[in-house]
Amino acid sequence: MVIGSVGAGKSSLIRALLKDDREVAKTQSLLFRDWLIDTPGEYCENPLQYRYLIATSFDTKLLVLVQDATRERGYFPPGFAGGFPVPAIGVITKIDLAAANPEKAERLLRQAMPKGDCFAVSSLNGTGIDELRDRIDSLLQIGGTR
């Protein structure tokens, strides 16, 4: 399950992971695509919506927290990942942009998930996507399902 704020790059990340050439559109509700769940950014930004994320996570094996490298602040509260019954990894998106600060983005992610892998990626040019996909494969053991 992929979670992050509005505009963090979740849908573009999923598109890159699935090697999908469809145009990215705003996610309005939970979208189940192949082996991934795309969540609306509003679910991350509004604490009243956390219950939907937590309930959905019971049907998942992995939480993917997404932080935009160009953002000045994080949208996850401290210890956010600990409220879920599944392990979490972090993904820093938009590292190819001039305003990107991957180090700051990782610090923001680490507040929400103190342990777990973090990957810096660009969904646009593909940097880091193969490594992230391989790590997800190893954690979920989904190798032949794509």
TrEMBL record:
Keyword Nucleotide-binding part of the UniProt annotation: yes
Keywords on record: Nucleotide-binding
Pfam families in UniProt: PduV-EutP
Keyword presence, Ribosomal protein: no
Domain of life: Bacteria
Family: Belongs to the EutP/PduV family.
Protein name: EutP/PduV family microcompartment system protein
Organism (species): Paenibacillus mendelii
